[in-house]
Amino acid sequence: MNQFEEGVEDVYAAVSAGRAVREHGPFGIQIGDQSMQFVGKVVHDPVVTGSQILAVAGARPASDFLVFQVLRDGALEVVRPEETVDLRSAGAEKFLVFRSDRSFRFLLDERAFDWGAAHISGGTIKRLAGVLSETTDVWLDAAGGEDRVIEDKELVDLAMPGTERFITRQIKITIKVNSRPREVDRRVLTYWEIVKLAEPNAVPSDQIIYSINYAAGPRQNAEGTLVEGQSVVVKEGMKFYVTPTDKS
After folding, report:
1. How far apart are the C-alpha atoms of 42 and 205, rounded to whole Å?
2. Taking every annotated instance into account, which residue ranges of this chain make up the domain Multi-ubiquitin (predicted)?
3. pLDDT band for position 206 (50/70/90)?
4. Labelling 178: which of 84, 125, 189, 207 has CA 20 to 30 A away?
């Protein structure tokens, strides 16, 4: 759906649809922050400078801010105040604006990224990588130490000495359901996802309810019970016991 007023060329919609961006404005572009939350802004020139992008974003004084263009492959490129971007070219529809006077470099899946803030969250790293948050982990590659998973809301300090290296990996966790091993591809499972691991043909019913007990879980839910409507964080080796009960 076009989020701009009628007559505004939505650059992102045009590129996503695979059609050419029209030659004349006004143009609707996406401007985001360090959480990669984007809002639509309108500019009138097909070729804009970094200063124009900062102005339409309300970033004043401009000297206190940095602007990055989000390229088609997800990489970021600094747009200096005097540099221009042609909105009619693919990959010119999204920008990020930071209140910062310097950028911070890190590696993500062996690709270099420059970021305009000293901290970045695991969830933002996933968005930059273009991966599904639910089924992908971000790992911090600790040189000489033990790699660790970065949770979506966890912030990593990019200002520390050295260049941080992040790696994305598909989630594969083996749990035990009624003593049988089951491999899952996400870290949070719902009540019914666990029931179906035990009873693949199970469906909601007035006659049968399923009781779920679990143990050997992560610290936030080490052990307990699960009822319909709830979910649980899982880890390798976690144990579930699913028991059907006839209510009649």
Report:
1. 52
2. 42-99, 104-170, 174-246
3. confident
4. 207
